Amino acid sequence: MSATPTPSLNEVFDRRRWPIVRFLRRHPVITDLLVCAVYLFLSATPLLFLVEGAQSWALVLSIVFVVGVLLFFRRRWPLALFVLVLALELLLVVVDQNSTTSGLGTMIMLYTVATKYRPRRSFVLATLASALIVAGIWLNIDRLMGDPELNNPEMGGEVSPVLIMVLVGFTILMSNYFVTGIGSWVRNNRIHEAEIANWGLKIRELAQNQERTRIAREMHDVVAHSLSVMIALSDGARIALKRNPDKASEVLEDISGTGRTALADMRRMLSVLREDSNSPLAPQPSQESLRDMLEGFRKAGMPLTFTQSGPAIHADPTLELTIFRIIQESLTNSLRYSPTATEVHVRVDRTDTHVTLLVYDDGAHAGAPRYGSEATAPVTRTSAGQGSGQGLKGIAERAAMYDGTLEAGPAGDGGWRVLVTLTLPVHSPSDSSHAPAGADLRTSPLKIHRSKTEDAS
What pLDDT digit, counting tens, does each position of 208-243 carry? Predict the structure, then answer.
């Protein structure tokens, strides 16, 4: 089953239009040819009946034909062709006062100009064109007043030339304003669609970047944790192989299990990125998963103790995943940078409004990056640092989702401390139940360590 591509906003806008409008927008050459054909038909047909004299007829028809050809190129040079078409149609008014289509080419050009330029300029040009056309008609007012139909006694006798010019001028002005208004509306609509499409593109890129960052953070946590545990177990297996072959066999089984779990997590993570994926999803890490993860570090040889105080953490999958990943990354750093640590402590303190996570070891952590309350980027302690700081950066990003803080760096007694404070959501109620009965409540080393760090800072 193939994935269905998500249509862009431009495609959505295009689908909302009428089929004939979609066709004309996709084929501008055909549209321009139709405009030219309509203009030539409306302008040339009346000439067969209204023009007197072969010489005048040929001149007028030539002007109409030239204007029709110019309209085909109206999109390329709208202002220049507007001036040229207006001049030709003024000449047409002077040559043939009976022409009923003089000004049609100007109206088409006014529409084109209005779709390209701001309304103020377009309406100024429409007013100027109307004034010039009316002035051209006024030059022929004597011949126009000689028309017997205007002086027919049955129509009320002689008609005032001023009244005629007022009516003609008003009609021409309103017609030009009308087509200019339509062109301005089309321009604004196109600008609006372009802005929405551009906004949608930026939102899409932002969402992709955020999702890419999230996936990179998850992959880093899974891969770095599993590889660090496998490396530690491999080192232990090499030593146990000489002293206790049976124990080495158990360690090798743990290595194999850790590798298979990491591979399954990686495949599951990559498969869910495909829209047509039907692969099963694993449950989010929970308290039970946290215990299993801590037990895995103990198997890797880490002298780990875990304490928990305060109300039990509310069943919030996102919060549980955040706590799990922070502790996992912190312990992975301890396993990687301080393999000779003799004490590693993990403490989770829960109050009604905050969750505090403290991970401490007494190792040296040479070359590890450092995050502090004043640092905005990781600071490497040595030029030959072992890490890139991506793990701590991921912890900081996870803490930021809960309006939290991260402090990571050397402790006062020479060890390493990672302190994360998370602000609980308002809707997360405090559970009256407390830590499990089996939890280790040896908190004195942590309290002593925290007081030393505060004194040192």
Answer: 888 777 777 777 666 766 776 777 777 777 767 777
Provide the phi-psi class of 301: left if phi over 0, else alpha when psi is between -120 and 50, else beta: left
Asked if 103 and 130 count as a contact pair (C-beta separation under 8 A), the reply is no
Long-range contact pairs involving 92-97 (C-beta distance under 8 Å, separation at least 24):
92/60, 92/63, 92/64, 93/133, 93/136, 93/137, 93/140, 94/136, 94/139, 94/140, 95/56, 95/59, 95/60, 95/63, 96/47, 96/50, 96/51, 96/56, 96/60, 97/137, 97/140, 97/143, 97/144
**DSSP sequence for 286-324:** -HHHHHHHHHHHHHTT--EEEEEESSPPPS-HHHHHHHH
The CATH number that domain 302-456 falls under is 3.30.565.10
Task: State pLDDT tens for residues 70-98.
Answer: 999 999 999 999 999 999 988 887 776 55
Q: Is the dihedral of CA 335, 368, 387, 399 positive or negative?
A: positive
Q: Which of 300-336 are b and which e, b meaning 16 or more Cβ less than 10 Å from the residue's Cβ?
A: bbbebebbbbbeebbeeeebbbbbbbbbbbbbbbbbb
What ranges do the domains of the chain cover?
9-204, 302-456
For residue 416, list its beta bridge partners. Answer: 361, 410
The CA-atom distances, in angstroms, between 421 and each of 131, 347, 391 are 74, 12, 17
Q: Which residue has the tokens 């007028």?
A: 60
What is the rounded CA–CA span in Å between residue 27 and residue 19? 12
Question: What six digits make up the tokens of 263?
Answer: 């591979």
Which residues does 407 contact at the CB level (< 8 Å), separation at least 6? Answer: 371, 372, 373, 417, 418, 419, 420
CB 377 within 8 A of CB 301: no
Q: Which pLDDT band holds residue 428 (cuts at 50, 70, 90)?
A: very low
